[in-house]
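Hi R.,

Here's the chain you asked about this morning:
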Amino acid sequence: MLAAVILVSCSAKTGQGSHSPTELQDSDTIRCLTLLFAGDMMQHAGQIKAAALADGSYDYSECFAYVKDQIEAADLAIANLEVTLGGAPYKGYPQFCAPDEFALAIKDAGFDILTTSNNHCCDTGSRGLGRTLRILDSMDIPSLGTYRDSRDRQERYPLLVEKNGIRLALLACTYGTNGLPVPSPYIVNLIDTVQLKQDIAKAKAMQPDAIIAFIHWGVEYVLRPVNSQQRQADWLLAHGVDHVIGGHPHVVQPMEMRTDSNGKKHLVVWSLGNYISNMTKDTTFGGLMVTLRLEKRMVNGQWSMANNPDASYSLIWTTRPPISGHKTHRVYPIGIADSMLNAKERQMRDFFAKTARSLFDKYNLNIIEN
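And the predicted structure, written out as tokens:
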């Protein structure tokens, strides 16, 4: 049985690249889809404490207010939920359990899909694995990477998404779960080439326009991909994956738009970095939003994917209450006005921007900052 297709409402977003239903007639000659990829959504103890209210609830409404417009401008926005929603008591590192309000804030910011296969997905055992899926389902947030059992995985994976007349098959997996066992009957997708071959074959059978793999890999705090990442990316592309989006190192790593021997282009993002966290080591307080634009054209009476995917990136960073004086953490675009920041914040922003841009100027391949 093939996984059910997720039809993303065209009226849900009206950003660049969106089409109304009337624009998707057969007489069209071009269809466009803009995807936005963001990194690790984390909740350390400092974030939970900062968001707490006197009545026992949590308020994260300020966290994404300054990047919301950019998120909503994309047709589909996808991020990595690197916490469990296991219910109270809530806790941060090393075994994350976040309030449900955090997931709701992520949705309200404009994110459409969350990956859940990462090294922290088993932090609260079966309770966290099951409740995380239940809460995301209740909020109508499609997810991929962890499953209730083999039947659930069979029915929901790969995740098939359709919007603007373009179909995507999404894959997700992680290098491990911090040594924590995956409690039966739950399933966490791991980087296993035998299983991945089967998953890619199933994805191809869905006849998508593109296959995108989200992979949790690499070495923490290292600014360039290690050999294992390079081998895994090459393997995925060789076996039919079109684009590879990576995370886990908690810092940004370069991006590439490769062209294969057939002239087909493939986006590889080695690490998106943190999207929101309480981390301060080196450049862990910053991250990426990578935008990928896909086109499908009418050729000789039939639709065909155009071989001109275009990708660009923008930088974001998180400011913390002890530095900013605000109640909660805020994600800011790198271009936030100086007048919004104090001297310490400007110093942090400028350090991250200089480090990231220097890295990307040297190692990026055919991808520029927007």
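The chain is about 25% helix and 30% strand.

Let me know if you need anything else.
M.
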